[in-house]
């Protein structure tokens, strides 16, 4: 009896999954959700989050081996002065001023 080494065998597992989750915390105002699915070299998904100014950000994304990563960002709603809950100085600064940015790059 001895050790027999297997050579030339590569194991390939086809990548396929789907997940989703959501958070809705009324104490902190943290509201967000995400779903994603992958089938081989194709990944697509979406995530949403409630911004401190009362707007909702929705990001839809898609990636494959041909086109790389692409995303569409939508902001829904109008900013609420005072932020969520209307508290000055609360989440988001409270004065109706806010900012957001997205740095999205496409990799090939």
Describe the structure.
By secondary structure, the chain is mainly beta. It has a domain of 71 residues. Helix content is 0%, strand content 44%. It has a five-stranded antiparallel β-sheet with strand order 1-2-3-4-5, with no helix packed on it. Strand 4 and strand 5 form a beta hairpin.
Properties at a glance:
single chain, 108 residues, mainly beta, five-stranded antiparallel sheet, 5 strands, 0% helix, elongated
| Oligomeric composition of the shown chains | single chain
Compressed to H and E, one letter per element, the order equals: EEEEE
Task: Please give the largest β-sheet.
Answer: 5 strands, antiparallel
Stretches where pLDDT is under 50 for at least 5 consecutive residues are 86-105
Sum this structure up briefly.
Keywords: Cuticle. The protein is an all-beta fold.
List the helices and strands and how they pair.
Layout: E1 16-25, E2 30-39, E3 42-50, E4 56-64, E5 68-76
Antiparallel strand pairs: 1-2, 2-3, 3-4, 4-5
């Amino acid at each position: 009896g001895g050790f027999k080494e297997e050579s030339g065998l590569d194991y390939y597992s086809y990548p396929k999954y789907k997940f989703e989750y959501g958070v809705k915390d009324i104490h902190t105002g943290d509201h967000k959700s995400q779903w994603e699915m992958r089938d081989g070299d194709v990944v697509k998904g979406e995530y949403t989050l409630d911004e401190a100014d009362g707007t909702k950000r929705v990001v839809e994304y898609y990636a494959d081996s041909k086109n790389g990563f692409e995303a569409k960002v939508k902001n829904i709603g109008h900013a609420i002065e005072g932020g969520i809950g209307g508290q000055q100085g609360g989440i988001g600064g409270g004065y109706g001023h806010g900012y957001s940015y997205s740095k999205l790059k496409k990799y090939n």
